[in-house]
From TrEMBL, chain A:
<protein>
    <submittedName>
        <fullName>Heterodisulfide reductase subunit B</fullName>
    </submittedName>
</protein>
<dbReference type="Pfam" id="PF02754">
    <property type="entry name" value="CCG"/>
</dbReference>
<dbReference type="GO" id="GO:0016491">
    <property type="term" value="F:oxidoreductase activity"/>
</dbReference>
<feature type="compositionally biased region" description="Basic and acidic residues">
    <location>
        <begin position="10"/>
        <end position="28"/>
    </location>
</feature>
<feature type="region of interest" description="Disordered">
    <location>
        <begin position="1"/>
        <end position="28"/>
    </location>
</feature>
<keyword id="KW-0560">Oxidoreductase</keyword>
<dbReference type="InterPro" id="IPR004017">
    <property type="entry name" value="Cys_rich_dom"/>
</dbReference>
<dbReference type="InterPro" id="IPR051278">
    <property type="entry name" value="HdrB/HdrD_reductase"/>
</dbReference>
<feature type="domain" description="Cysteine-rich">
    <location>
        <begin position="218"/>
        <end position="315"/>
    </location>
</feature>
Amino acid sequence: MSEKLIPLAELRERKAQPVRPNPEEAPRPDLREELFELEARGELIVQRVPEPYVEVTTKFGRTKKVPIDHLWHHKSCGQCGHIPGYTTSILWLNRQFGIDYVDPTDQTSCTGWNYYASATSNAVAQLLVMCRNFAAAYETGYYPLIHCGTSYGHYKELREQLVHHKELRDQVRRVLDKLGKPLVVPEEIVHYSEWVHVMRHRIAERQVVDMRNITACVHPACHYYKIVAEDAIYDPDIYGGQRTATVTALLQALGINVADYSTWFDCCGFGFRHILVQRDFTRSFAVLRKIEVMKDEANPDMTVTHDTGCVTTLDKSQFAAKAHQRRVGVPVLADSQVAALAMGAHPFRVLQLHWHSTDWRPLLEKLGIDWQRHWAEFEEDLAAIERGEKPGLTWEDAEQPILTR
Amino acid sequence: MSVATWSPTKAGQRYADVAEETKRQLFEEVKSDPRYPDFLYGCYECGICVSACPSARFYDFSPRVIAQALAREDIDRFYEILMEDIWNCAQCFSCVRCPRGNNPGGLVTLMREVAVRHGLEQAQQALQGYSRVIYKIMLKGNQVSPDMLQPDFFPDWGPWVREFSRNMSAWRKAIPVDTLRNVTDAAWRTDEKTLRELYTIWLETGNMEVIREVDEGLYELLVEIMEEELEAAS
């Protein structure tokens, strides 16, 4: 299969020619300006990015503010439901850096997974789910940080619809009035991987696990950089500015060898509906177009991504393929988990690797982490919970890194 | 190749028994969506969308044909796509690299909405086995929850699913995040008031009528629960 794909030499040639876009020549108007105009007309409130923030460049060369502190964690149902170490790692990183945050119970998912899977909703309902969550964040005074790539992409698309269609705004406002909530839209819609991206050098400063012997492939999440593409972070020093810089820049900061593969643009095969009720497509695509290509072209120790569906799909699809002697066996981690691991987070109390399916043990062994010892510690935790000695794990149990500098 | 000759078996005549008026009405419903002009600008026939499309590799599916059929208002071809193709889309939006600015994935979303609103048989077939997810999303505001990790639902995910399921209670208690710890029937702990606001959104926006077209029994169950909750709180 790899012979038919774009040759790696050609990819490297393209990457050697950095793209430096001029924001004055951007093909689309800056939606934020339109938001501020609507605010000036009294139609909605724009929640400002709080200080401190870091300015980054996006696809068309515009500047985007990424907040560092005062964060309202808009959690992901797929992460919290099926890969809880994803969320735990994000919050553990926040706590390690002393970030002031809210982990809300006044939050629903974006419901976008269902919308893209089944279409059993409509534009106004989807907009209201988004605006209700944004209003809930605004009421706390904290700024929303979106954990899920689909929520991030979906909200960006909904924001665009809200700005461009007065009839939708009027319908949304009618129901928000009934709920007693203001119509609020954040100045920037920010994905957690963007927070990780701007924190990468501080994460690297506190790195205790040497990762220089690790090779990783990156799967950029479709809903992060394909839906409303202009909001994604691009950097001329990463892939010549021709692909999003998030995830890759973090891995490079941690000393990991990021290996290229020719199907980087392909989706993972999640499919939204397919992953739940038509997984033959999902498994085939994930294995034939992603994992096997990575194996053949880069033979990575792990693949790293930054979205709920991608971790799920790439991780869970490998078992059945292995039964068919396909070339699989690449552990799949989120960037937040890699960052936390680099800073010495416990592989089970924090990364919660026992919820992953593809074998992660060889990766930990290559990193010099004694996973058997840490699993034994975690089993002790479970036994204490079973004995009723404690109701569950707390941050106090999980906060301490397994290694110190 | 033109749309008409793209596939000899899809020459726009397989639903000749369906009234022209029916096809036209469904097409007009898609076209009247306020998002439609943002999703379709024309088509260069360059095929970039197809080359990026995961579904085009595994199904008889083409985002280019969708954009062309809609742009030409070829309602016979539109109807075939509505009946046969839309549920194959992976909704990844790789197709939005279209140099014309089209969003074929978005067009599919609009067509799916119409298919569901009209309770088309193909929509019901595509969503078979999906009712438990709709139940969860409507009532809990989460697409998935830990207790859905059952071996009979995910047999192809390997023996670990059995482990997840067997150890669910203890493992969920061993998560240090306050809102996740010991929660198994939802992704995280959500306020009752938040859920009531969500129910209000579903009921006020006509979303529940959409559910009725997919599964009437589920609709009745959900509305009863939501109205009881809202009434009790008021």
